[in-house]
Amino acid sequence: MKDVIKEIFSTVIYVLVVLAATYLVITFVGQRTQVKGSSMEPTLSDNDNLIVDKISYRFKDPQRYDIIVFPFQYEEDTYYIKRIIGLPGETVQIDENGTIFINGEELKENYGREVMLSPGRASEPITLGEDEYFVLGDNRNNSSDSRDPSVGNIHRENIIGKAWVRIWPLRNFGVLRHQ
Fold first, then answer.
1. Domain enclosing residue 48, as ranges
2. Which of 77, 104, 145, 165 qualifies as a cystine partner to 51, CB 3.0-4.6 A?
3. Is 39 an active-site residue?
4. What is the pTM of this model?
5. pLDDT tens-place string over residues 87-145
6. Which listed residue (6, 36, 82, 143) is catalytic?
7. 39, 54, 146, 162: which one is catalytic?
């Protein structure tokens, strides 16, 4: 009987350790997330499964062109995935031709799938606060991003992490290109 109790106790301790380790990894290191929609095409596609790195930004600041995950403020359990375009303290503006300007200088980037048709609220200069980021989807004409007042500027504290590895579909498995 002692052996049975010892075995049950050992199993319970093992399960608790595994659950605690899993919780710590998901909370502080990384988590799986699934892309819904086409706002990041062609970089990310609908139903891609990713691992989000939640630890890097504890040691360094997000950089321009990083692909980040953050919660949508008006819908519980809804997360957006977008690319950082504007950094804290910068002024972002998009002209009627879809050209992005950072502090008055044209941003040379090639992540946009096509020419932006609507600059949204960025038709006027937007100066970012010391903890704010301006994000865009790569599929600029099919993306709800910082140009939309319902998304707006993203505060540093709301960034969950950086999209790191695509794990599904297997044919596209690999580390994501940010820069």
1. 33-164
2. 165
3. yes
4. 0.81
5. 999 999 999 999 999 999 999 888 777 888 899 999 999 999 999 999 999 999 999 89
6. 82
7. 39
